[in-house]
Write a structure and sequence with these properties.
The complex is a heterodimer of chains A (342) and B (506).
Chain A lengths: L6 H4 L2 H6 L4 H8 L3 H17 L7 H26 L7 H15 L13 H21 L5 H20 L4 E2 L4 H7 L1 E2 L2 E2 H19 L1 H11 L1 H6 L4 H27 L1 E2 L8 H11 L10 H20 L4 H19 L2 H4 L4
Helix pairs in contact in A: 4-15, 5-10, 5-13, 5-14, 5-15, 6-7, 6-8, 6-13, 7-8, 7-13, 9-13, 10-11, 10-15, 11-13, 14-15, 14-16
Chain B lengths: L4 E12 L2 E12 L3 E5 L6 H8 L7 E6 L2 E2 L5 H6 L2 E4 L11 H5 L8 E2 L2 E2 L1 H14 L15 H18 L6 E5 L7 H14 L4 E5 L3 H7 L2 E6 L2 E7 L5 H9 L20 E10 L3 E9 L3 E5 L6 H9 L6 E6 L2 E3 L4 H6 L2 E4 L3 H5 L6 H6 L7 E2 L2 E2 L1 H15 L15 H14 L4 E5 L7 H16 L3 E5 L3 H7 L2 E6 L2 E7 L8 H8 L1
Parallel strand pairs in B: 3-10, 3-11, 6-9, 9-10, 15-22, 15-23, 18-21, 21-22
Antiparallel strand pairs in B: 1-2, 1-4, 4-5, 7-8, 11-12, 13-14, 13-16, 16-17, 19-20, 23-24
The chains are: A mainly alpha (342), B alpha/beta (506).
Chain lengths: 342, 506
């Protein structure tokens, strides 16, 4: 089946044209994320040589998958907005507010609350509402999404610090942590959860009207509107959906550490964005999908895991990540569509 | 056989602030015909189209569709009533497949519950494309199609939609459909349109009269928002239509012809064998001090590209340019500016003017070096320079700090002119100086052009109409299909007749 994700490759046309029409070339074209799979292969090769095979040991692979789960969920969230051709930088703020809310509403050592499993719809509701506001600011107030969502992030982070009084809240409900650290057939449960979410989004993107219209908006919002796409409604829903997924990720973070604090949201945006770009979701919109988000996250996490195993200087690791982000964007962005680069 | 009327306009009228776009005329459009609609810019063609597609509401008169008066709220509503328009710039999304583009917003026809059946969509797309005789793979991305193929996909989409809404005789409007196509593709387009005609009405807007004549069953001429006449296609005479479109004979004194001065013998610019691969064949000409040289030719004649080479926004593949006898190379716009060559583009809002900035900023844009004192830009010098040139070109504005976006078209054009004069441009390339400007302001622009020539500035002009070219210039170069075909002198007392010139253009 021809999928949306094959689009991600259109931009890397130079790379594409170099692959001949041979059998290998045909195979390359028939797999929508073949470019990313090759990148992952290169990362694996370099690090398994550098670590004498330790990198590819089954226990390390499971570690990588487990580590990639939450970044993957976040990447799956933010890539939806990027497909629209918009930007969402509110990730850290929404994760902070939902993490703190989860900490205060679950059984904890600061308040007397205990909402139990109700926390799942609650965090999704909080995240979803914040996302809806993002969508409304973008569509109704016609604000550039990258700046309005940045403002949203700082606002919510501030609120999260205020209601948590700036301290961490230890949990007393161990059920969630149990699920998070458990394994199913040797695979971390939380990773399976992330993959399931990816699957749901993949089906939505390829098999539903909402999905088709998302790509139309990402391609050209004005033309999409002309054709009758309900642009505002779809953008608001996608921003809302993205917020809901952030909320879920916030809860998972809290569950994993069995405590909660506003700062749990910090430093999550950068890996998610890098994964989006590395996976081949074009920042100019309309290209790439859930498959790209999944593979992108695995590449980024594997890269960082490899750097740690090889005991590379941590500052060097940060620089490598920055270079990876810039190179990935340089390869995937559609310059014709942006016109003037601001 | 009497054909049935599908659309009828009765006393149709549309007024914009300051302009009457449609003066209230009657026009009938029939089933199963190709109607060619011709007229100059501003004749009312596009206003009429936008009423048909529901983008404008008429201010007076009636719009009858299939015998019923109708009010359309927008292009989607028009499509539901079987009226579709193929826009010049196209409305195909490049990141979607042919199938997805064809059925965008109508996916529910292929849905089972929440999910869309991709295979049903592709099958229907294949069928729809085959019906129109198109050999396009429905699963290719539209970004990989040629402009012609994209146009075909759009046409297929409109026809499919009109069938979806159960319209017997859909109406297809094509606005300048051939500008982006190659010769061979144009032929295919008209073959397809002639086939579509068997069950649809096609309305064709084009500047290429020969195309209209060859392919229309009927040609309607509009002028200044009014219906002039109509005639059967095929047999129509191109010169006759051209005359009807322009309407007026050359009036003595028009275009400030009495102010025309003879150029001096000094050659300020010489072009030798300049060529652009597959666009322009080697061309040579000279420009004298104080001369107005008109470049005349249809779209695709290469004149646009030629001036772009002189302005630095395009590169010639061979040939040389001499300025005051010295060979120069113009690789970027800044090189042209350095050689005192100014370019006043056709779309001043996009290329000529920073509409978000004020008048002073625009006029001073190229000369900030001159406005410095002690290393910093001097506010007073800035104001004085702006006011000086505003006075020279007579910009009507309350202050030099007025935002250019708020000025009228004529005043904007004067600001652009002021900018180049302030930068001491000796040669001005003026691309359609009077486009979108009302009659009074046009005359002022003509006056400025004459004044500049008198002061010894040289100009290369390309005008909206042939009359304007003839009226303004000292000499004209006629280009056709990338070749210089003729050079005609236009002294004030012996201007050539437009009909003589058209022969070499077409």
């Amino acid at each position: 089946m021809k999928t949306k994700n094959s689009r991600s490759l259109e931009n890397i046309s130079t790379l594409r044209s170099k692959v001949s029409a041979s059998a290998v070339g045909k195979l390359y074209h028939s797999i929508p994320i073949s470019g990313q799979i090759i990148s992952l292969g290169i990362v694996a090769l370099i690090f398994s040589l550098g670590t004498n095979g330790q990198f590819l040991h089954i226990s390390n692979i499971m570690t990588v998958l487990g580590l990639s789960a939450i970044p993957m969920i976040l990447c799956l969230a933010v890539h939806q907005v990027i497909i629209l051709g918009a930007m969402d930088l509110s990730l850290e703020g929404i994760v902070a507010i939902t993490a703190v809310s989860a900490g205060l509403l679950l059984k904890n050592s600061v308040t007397a609350n205990d909402v139990g499993l109700w926390i799942i719809p609650i965090v999704m509701l909080i995240g979803g509402l914040a996302g809806l506001v993002n969508g409304l600011l973008n569509t109704k107030l016609r604000m550039p999404s990258f700046i309005s969502t940045l403002g949203m992030s700082w606002t919510l982070f501030g609120v999260a610090i205020m209601i948590s009084k700036g301290s961490s809240i230890p949990l007393r409900d161990l059920r969630f942590q149990k699920v998070i650290i458990s394994e199913f057939l040797g695979i971390p449960t939380v990773f399976i959860l992330a993959i399931l979410l990816g699957l749901v989004l993949y089906i939505m993107q390829n098999k539903t009207k909402l999905g088709k219209h998302m790509y139309a908006i990402g391609g050209n919002e004005i033309l999409a509107k002309q054709a009758g796409v309900k642009v505002d409604r779809i953008k608001i829903s996608i921003f809302g959906l993205t917020g809901m997924i952030y909320g879920l990720a916030g809860l998972l973070l809290v569950a994993r550490l069995n405590s909660s604090a506003a700062r749990y949201g910090n430093n999550l945006l950068f890996p998610a964005m890098t994964a989006v770009a590395v996976g081949g979701v074009s920042l100019s919109g309309g290209v790439g999908g859930a498959l790209n988000a999944v593979i992108g996250t695995i590449i980024v996490v594997a890269l960082n895991n490899g750097l740690v195993l090889m005991q590379i200087n941590p500052y060097m690791q940060s620089a490598v990540n920055g270079i990876v982000l810039i190179s990935a964007v340089a390869l995937t962005i559609d310059r014709n569509k942006i016109g003037i680069i601001k | 056989m009497e054909k049935k009327k599908i659309i009828e306009f009765k006393g149709i009228r549309k007024v914009f602030p300051g302009v009457v776009a449609l003066k209230g005329f009657d026009l009938a459009i029939y089933e199963k015909e190709i109607l060619g609609l011709v007229g100059e810019n501003g004749a009312g063609k596009s206003t009429l189209m936008k009423i048909m597609t529901g983008n404008y509401q008429p201010d007076g008169g009636q719009f009858l569709l299939r015998g019923q008066p109708i009010v359309l709220g927008g292009s989607m509503e028009a499509i539901e009533h079987g009226i579709g328009m193929v826009f010049q710039e196209g409305s195909i999304l490049p990141n979607l497949t042919v199938t997805e583009n064809l059925f965008l917003c109508h996916e529910k026809e292929f849905s089972k519950g929440w999910f869309i059946s991709e295979s049903a969509m592709v099958a229907e797309a294949r069928k729809a494309l085959e019906e129109n005789g198109l050999d396009i793979n429905p699963t290719t991305l539209c970004g990989n199609l040629s402009p012609a193929q994209r146009q075909m996909v759009e046409i297929t989409r409109l026809l499919w939609l009109s069938r979806l809404y159960r319209h017997e005789n859909p109406i297809l409007i094509l606005d300048e459909p051939t500008t982006v196509l190659l010769e061979k593709e144009i032929k295919t387009l008209f073959e397809i349109l002639n086939r579509i005609k068997e069950h649809a009405t096609v309305i064709l807007i084009s500047h290429r009269l020969e195309e209209i004549i060859e392919n229309s069953d009927r040609i309607v001429v509009l002028k200044d928002g009014d219906y002039v006449t109509e005639m059967p296609g095929k047999a129509a005479d191109i010169f006759k239509i051209e005359q009807l479109m322009v309407g007026r004979d050359m009036v003595e004194g028009y275009y400030r012809r009495n102010e025309q001065v003879d150029p001096t013998d000094t050659v300020v610019l010489e072009v030798k064998d300049l060529a652009i691969e597959s666009i322009l064949e080697p061309i040579s000409f000279t420009l004298h001090k104080g001369e107005i040289l008109a470049l005349v030719g249809l779209i695709g004649s290469g004149k646009e590209e030629l001036v772009k080479c002189l302005g630095g926004s395009m590169q010639a593949t061979q040939g040389s340019i001499y300025r005051n006898g010295k060979r120069i190379s113009i690789k970027q716009p800044k090189h042209a500016i350095a050689h005192a060559i100014g370019y006043i583009p056709i779309d001043r809002r996009i290329e000529g003017l920073a509409t978000d900035l004020d008048i002073a900023d625009n006029i001073n844009m190229l000369v900030y070096k001159k406005l410095k004192s002690r290393g910093f830009i001097n506010k007073r010098k800035e104001r004085d320079n702006a006011n000086h040139w505003m006075g020279v070109v007579k910009v009507k504005a309350t202050s030099h700090r007025m935002k250019c976006g708020n000025l009228s078209g004529g005043n904007q054009q004067k600001v652009v002119l002021g900018k180049w004069l302030s930068a001491d441009a000796e040669i001005l390339i003026v691309d359609h100086p009077t486009r979108g400007i009302d009659v009074g302001a046009k005359d002022e622009i003509y006056h400025h052009i004459r004044q500049l020539a008198k002061q010894g500035k040289s100009m290369i002009i390309m005008c909206d109409t042939l009359e304007e070219d003839i009226g303004l210039c000292n000499r004209m170069l006629i280009l056709k299909d990338g070749k210089k075909v003729n050079e005609v002198s236009c002294p004030p007392d012996a201007k050539p007749a437009p009909t003589d010139i058209i022969e070499s253009i077409v």
